[in-house]
Design goal:
The protein is of the alpha+beta class. The protein has eight helices and five strands.
């Protein structure tokens, strides 16, 4: 599993075990290990301003792809599109977002075309309906279930579901359309400003 680092300074010594092959002077610095959870534990001590991304665990033949994904994660993190609880981005924890953002143009097109029925709504109303729509397509829950999930009264959910039914009609019952809607809503969240 490769990892790569974005940093303002030279890679600090002692963060990686000696048996881990690393290129601390590369652009960006990188290393390769089959045991990332143990071998890369020292990365949690990266200095302030440093960010590391650990690519998906793969067979050695696919290390270049894992490294490519780790570099992409660093780029997305630098733009504020990925968040981690510390200085290390584990790609395995962000696979959905990484997949959605492989082609930002296409995902923005998906969001725009799929969510057209929401386009004419005011900002707050659109946000409320998008939140309810995402919960609906993800769970297929009833009004009381969605109410509990969204911490809203079931009557509020029923009103929103009625409006969504008016806007999206039969698309809400079609599994393929529900998948498109879910992907579009997730993409919209991953790419702020792409509404």
């Amino acid at each position: 599993m490769p990892f790569t680092v974005r940093s303002p300074r030279e890679f600090p010594p002692g963060l990686l075990p000696e048996h881990v092959p690393a290129d601390p002077l590369g652009n960006p610095p990188a290393a390769l290990t089959p045991a990332p959870d143990t071998d890369l534990a020292g990365l949690t001590a990266l200095p302030a301003g440093w960010t590391a991304a650990v690519g998906p665990l793969v067979a050695p033949a696919a290390a270049a792809e894992s490294f490519r994904i780790a570099r992409r994660a660093l780029d997305l993190a630098a733009r504020g599109l990925l968040e981690a609880p510390g200085p290390v981005f584990w790609c395995r924890d962000h696979l959905t977002t990484l997949l959605l953002l492989v082609d930002e143009f296409l995902v923005a097109q998906l969001a725009t075309t799929t969510l057209t029925p929401l386009a004419g709504l005011s900002g707050r109303r659109r946000e409320q309906l998008a939140e309810t729509l995402l919960a609906l397509v993800q769970t297929r829950g009833s009004a009381p279930e969605l109410g509990r999930l969204l911490d809203l009264h079931p009557q509020t959910i029923r009103a929103r579901l009625k409006k969504l039914g008016e806007l999206f009609g039969a698309r809400l019952a079609d599994p393929g359309e529900r998948l498109r809607l879910e992907l579009a809503l997730l993409a919209e969240r991953a790419l702020p400003g792409e509404e």
